[in-house]
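Students often ask why inverse folding is considered easier than folding. One informal answer: many sequences map to the same fold, so there is more than one right answer. In these notes we will look at a single instance of the problem. The structure comes first.
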């Protein structure tokens, strides 16, 4: 099982020339790469023609699966009529206008304007710049720090990686930068104390947030950023009372809440937006990934009217709103965004996720009896299985053993792709998956889990 076959020509060329993101570079020559050639429905196919259920929608993004003809047609049509234009200097395109209107229509809170980026990282970077810009416009030049959370994931640009609360995004990268504060991670299983109830855990986190704000000075803090369900930190679903409780503290101190919906948005959690599933009421929103069902890069920042007015005032003082990306609001991305949202609505993707989530939950719960499984976590069609060395004490495996990545590798041999985030195996299948395909994904995962158990013992 652990003997990897000799590398193919394409794999060798891959390793020789491509710098692979989030990859154990020192092991690459022995592990090789999995070169994917095509995709259809929930399956992707490698260069040998082997099919894999893509149980992660790629990187939590291909929510409508692969090879969707409607999206392909929309892309082709847009490329024929206008392959590129921009929104700088008061220019506009019909696809950007339509997508902004659609996003305002489906937004979970009142939104006045949409700023387009090319990615989730750029969206969150922009959120921070906008919070600074807003506070300068409002005569609060010292209100600039941003609170994030341990285990958060908000991207990899210098500021987005600083907001991210994962060691491998900081160590060796001279990050986080100043002005970023990390508060507790709302993961009861990992960070709840012995004998502490979930309600007491939430109260402790609220107190810790309040202490942090008071220590730093409320007048120095602009915003807090949060993913409703935390994705790349290990699919962490906070207690249901958590957001309402921390928002009280933020509101008291006039600290805005930025909602990072980059994974959660567009039906993933069983509602249009993760904030609706988790009881969060944000001020501004970041979106990307399923915004275009991943058929093109695109990100968006959504802001309400009162914040927009601050930009207008500041632009009047300076002469322009000095921010924008060459490909932010690219017509291809916007046309795909419009089409993806139309498909989500017409095919009632939220309804489909809700219909499948009891199956997802039942298969997750059944895994709890396995000796390697410490905890399973799920919301809608996103979930995580945390592997542990000792179920009773919740002791984790030594990270050097790389048990999670090993399971993911074994799973490829069983014809499915999931992502190991540490020793948590993340599930985020295309939202169009059928019940039979979902069961097949779990069947294949169970085989890989059994093989991993044999490997670790
Ligand atoms: N925010 C969240 C919650 C994410 O999961 C990600 C990527 O996984 C990002 C932001 C960054 O998005 P991108 O990789 O498009 O820059």
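Output (designed amino acids):
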């Amino acid at each position: 099982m652990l003997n990897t076959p000799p590398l193919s020509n394409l794999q060798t060329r891959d390793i020789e020339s491509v710098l692979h993101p989030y990859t154990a570079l020192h092991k690459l020559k022995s592990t090789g790469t999995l070169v994917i050639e095509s995709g259809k429905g929930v399956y992707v196919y490698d260069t040998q023609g082997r099919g894999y259920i893509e149980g992660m929608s790629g990187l939590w993004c291909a929510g409508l699966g692969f090879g969707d003809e409607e999206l392909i047609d929309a892309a082709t049509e847009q490329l024929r009529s206008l392959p590129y234009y921009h929104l700088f200097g008061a220019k506009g395109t019909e696809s950007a206008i339509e997508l902004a209107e659609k996003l305002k229509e489906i937004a979970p809170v009142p939104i006045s304007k949409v700023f387009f980026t090319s990615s989730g990282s750029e969206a969150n970077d922009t959120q921070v710049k906008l919070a600074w810009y807003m506070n300068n416009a409002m005569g609060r030049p010292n209100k600039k720090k941003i609170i994030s959370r341990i285990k958060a994931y908000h991207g990899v640009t210098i500021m987005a990686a600083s907001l991210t609360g994962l060691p491998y995004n900081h160590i060796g990268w001279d990050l986080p930068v100043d002005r970023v504060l990390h508060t507790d991670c709302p993961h009861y299983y990992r960070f709840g104390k012995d004998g502490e109830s979930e309600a007491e855990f939430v109260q402790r986190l609220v107190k810790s947030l309040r202490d942090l704000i008071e220590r730093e000075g409320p007048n120095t803090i602009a915003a807090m950023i949060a993913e409703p369900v935390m994705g790349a930190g290990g699919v962490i679903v906070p207690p249901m009372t958590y957001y309402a409780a921390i928002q009280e503290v933020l509101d008291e101190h006039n600290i805005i809440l930025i909602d990072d919906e980059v994974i959660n948005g567009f039906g993933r959690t069983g509602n249009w937006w993760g904030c609706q599933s988790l009881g969060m009421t944000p001020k501004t929103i970041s979106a990307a990934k399923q915004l275009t069902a991943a058929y093109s890069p695109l990100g968006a920042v959504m802001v309400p009217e009162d914040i927009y007015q601050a930009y207008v005032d500041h632009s009047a003082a300076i002469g322009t709103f000095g921010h924008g990306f060459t490909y932010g609001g690219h017509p291809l991305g916007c046309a795909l965004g419009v089409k993806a949202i139309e498909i989500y609505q017409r095919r009632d993707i939220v309804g489909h996720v809700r219909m499948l989530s009891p199956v997802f939950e039942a298969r997750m719960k059944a895994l709890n009896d396995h000796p390697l499984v410490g905890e399973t976590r799920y919301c809608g069609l996103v979930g995580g299985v945390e592997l542990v060395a000792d179920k009773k004490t919740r002791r984790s495996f030594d990270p050097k053993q790389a048990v999670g990545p090993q399971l993911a590798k074994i799973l490829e041999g069983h014809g499915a792709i999931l992502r190991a985030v540490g020793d948590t195996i993340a599930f985020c299948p295309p939202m169009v998956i059928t019940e039979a395909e979902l069961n097949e994904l779990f069947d294949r995962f169970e085989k890989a889990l059994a093989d991993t158990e044999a490997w670790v013992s």
